[in-house]
């Protein structure tokens, strides 16, 4: 993935050059390389905004929220990051991403405070996953609710 974000490769990318940085940020996140993940996600946001790629910006913002959560940032920071991603996803009619944002909000609430707001986000995520036939994520939301209760 690191090779995919070299300038000579990016100029041939059909979807613009922001989205490969989302992939790279996600890969760094999964490898627990949070500093590098944060840099790649910020680059993805910058490029997406410059090129007017609202969908790519939404995914980049979601990835930033996931990084904040993984880094155990303050709940207000995590919540704010998910809400920014959620707003972009909803305005772009990106229902699967919006559901993932709700799931992230619910997970963050359970992990830190067990808040009732997490329950509302949980319900939104679970219902959306079911309607869209996203069984894996619906099951994950069910497990989260069982943990919360």
Task: Describe what you observe in this structure.
- By secondary structure, the protein is mostly helical.
- 78% of the residues lie in helices and 0% in strands.
- It has 8 helices and no strands.
- Helix 5 (75-91) packs antiparallel against helix 6 (95-112), helix 6 (95-112) packs antiparallel against helix 7 and helix 6 (95-112) packs parallel to helix 8 (135-148).
- The longest helix is centred in the first third of the chain and has 18 residues, at 34-51.
- It is globular, with a radius of gyration of 16 Å.
Secondary-structure topology with pairs:
Layout: H1 7-10, H2 19-30, H3 34-51, H4 54-70, H5 75-91, H6 95-112, H7 116-131, H8 135-148
Helix pairs in contact: 2-3, 2-4, 3-4, 4-5, 4-6, 5-6, 6-7, 6-8, 7-8
- Structural class estimated from helices and strands: mainly alpha
* Count of alpha/pi helices: 8
Q: Which residue ranges are poorly predicted, with pLDDT under 50 across at least 5 consecutive positions?
A: none
Rg measurement, Å:
16 Å
Q: Return the string of H and E elements.
A: HHHHHHHH
Instruction: Characterize the main sheet.
Output: none
In terms of DSSP E residues, the strand content is under 5%
Rough outline? globular
As a percent range, the share of helical residues equals over 70%
Rounded mean pLDDT score: 84
Distance between the amino and carboxyl termini = 40 Å
Query: What is the tally of beta strands?
Result: 0
């Amino acid at each position: 993935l690191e090779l995919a974000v070299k300038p000579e490769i990016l100029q041939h990318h059909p979807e613009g050059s922001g989205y490969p940085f989302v992939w790279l940020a996600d890969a760094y996140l999964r490898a627990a390389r949070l500093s590098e993940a944060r840099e790649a996600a910020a680059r993805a946001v910058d490029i997406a905004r410059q090129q007017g790629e609202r969908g790519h910006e939404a995914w980049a913002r979601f990835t930033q929220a996931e990084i904040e959560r993984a880094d155990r940032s303050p709940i207000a920071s995590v919540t704010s990051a998910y809400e920014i991603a959620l707003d972009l996803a909803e305005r772009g009619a990106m229902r699967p991403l919006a559901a993932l944002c709700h799931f992230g909000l619910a997970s963050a609430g359970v992990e830190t405070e067990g808040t009732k707001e997490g329950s509302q986000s949980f319900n939104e995520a679970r219902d959306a996953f079911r309607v869209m036939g996203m069984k894996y994520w619906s099951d994950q939301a069910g497990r989260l609710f069982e943990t919360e209760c």
